[in-house]
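Hi Q.,

Before the meeting this afternoon, I wanted you to have the magnesium ion prediction in hand. No need to reply - just skim if you have a minute. The sequence and ligand are here:
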Amino acid sequence: MNRIAAGEVVERPASALKELVENALDAGARAISVGLRQGGLDGIVVTDDGHGIARDEMPIALERHATSKLPDEAIEQVRTLGFRGEALPSIGSVSRLTLSSRQAGGDGWRIVCDNGVLSDVEPCAMPYGTRVEVEGLFARVPARRKFLRSPRSEYAACLDIVRRLAMARSDVGFVLEHDGRRVLSLPASQEREDRVAQLIDRELADNHVIVELEREGVSLAGVASLPTFHRGSADHQYLFVNGRPVRDRLLVGAVRGAYADFVARDRHPVLALFLTIPVEEVDVNVHPAKTEVRFRDPAFMRGMIVSGLRRALDAAGMRVINRPDAGSTELWQRDAEPGFGPAQLPSSGTFLPDWSSRGGAGGGTPLFADRQARFSGFAPSGRAEPAVAMPTDEARAFPLGVARGQVARTYIVAEAEDGLILVDQHAAHERLVLERMRKALADGSVARQALLLPEVVELDEPACDRIEARIDELGELGLEVERFGPAAMLVRAAPAMLGLSDVTGLVRDLADDLAALGDATSLKGRLDLVAATMACHGSVRAGRVLSVAEMNALLREMEVTPHSGQCNHGRPTWVKLAHGDIEKLFGRH
Ligand code: ADP
Ligand code: MG
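Predicted structure with the ligand bound:
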């Protein structure tokens, strides 16, 4: 048996686990239970109630290339999950694998494959179904063992595998235990949306739309979050093709396209989409682990996903915003950065009220939280207050002008000496908070504010592990957290400058950021990313009604803050329409 070749199928516990669970699904199991020890490094046990294996077939199942579920040569006609007949032999060649099985009406039998050496088949007592136990993976193959990561990382990879397979098959019950602790317990015959919510985020249960679309023999189904429910990374977007979990960049792009008008570019909806397509339209054999696909017609699939999502969002009352035509938007300009600098400005008297502690547009997620309401035919909310009388020379000194009102509860309208200015209140405020945080860190003085009641934030275990590993660094940033059981964190204090109302959202997004950062990078090294996430959660939301005094305070602070012309994601925070441009718009030139 070629042990190196085994690496094609089995490179780490998670890949072995994937093969074992897929075999159980292929065997028609209705309930699958997975037990892991030390992230699967010490042991993996998969038990199912499927049709089992006949006594005589058991040695054959462990002989390389001896079995194959392929009925004929047509490698493209793959309908079952496994099709190469090499998973069990590969795993058995690099571990101690015990296969026990009992078919309906028959007796139980057991065979052991110890690093490639087969035992005799012996009787054993067990319920109907199959049980595969893998111990000491790569224990005798040091060259491979040394590539394995920590039990925590291996566990995270195993959890991801089980999660994806369980999402694909909401008809099958799953139990997952790690080091004796029950991590997942999913009943059989769940509705797909319930299963997806249970696996991704329970709040999704009340914040989703159902996706359903058929076109030219291809069908798309699934569950997608409302635009108000989003996360800081695209990690919570799942795609399944013919029941198989796959990773494909096409998904991220298509989702972005579909939600472009509803969700900021750096925010990502949460979803699970299931494509059912004729087998000849897809090549699943690209990668040995079969997590990549190649579509014959990727543009068509992308179109399917965009239309499917758009329709579902439409039906839920989200309307796509009408874009103004290009000609008129060209007139809106932004002064080259920095059009003005702290040096030219009155440095005194700027202050920033505590925007964030005044009840915002609702809990949960801050950014554009109110767009949904505005796009579903909400009454226009433009609003002007009698402007505070402002001496002319003083107004002249303010490059961003004097606030005249607020549009759509999102944009501040200000009048400057030479034109009209629109400010995106959320983007602008986020930038100010980031700059304040940078300064506080540089001074080594990030003030913390203790929460009245420490807040428990539920997260999955790997996410908690990632945060726990960074507790000290987060503390320096003003966030005081501690581990609270296997799948929750306890937040005791948050950076005072954020005036946080949504601690849960912040901690979840930070967990996503840390996943993106990986183990190596220090938070100091990627301070911008973390500080930006914090700033985003501590910022005045779109949808907040602001008084003229508050608006002016925001404008004044923007003027004295470096880089305030761009939000943390590189978009402008304000634009200007010069007087001459206004005249052009009205044909007075
Ligand atoms: P493949 O799945 O590609 O056929 P595997 O090496 O994964 O190859 O499995 C070998 C064979 O062992 C399968 O074809 C199947 O007949 C049998 N087998 C493996 N696991 C199970 C199971 N959980 N229940 C029933 N049969 C199984
Ligand atoms: Mg298989």
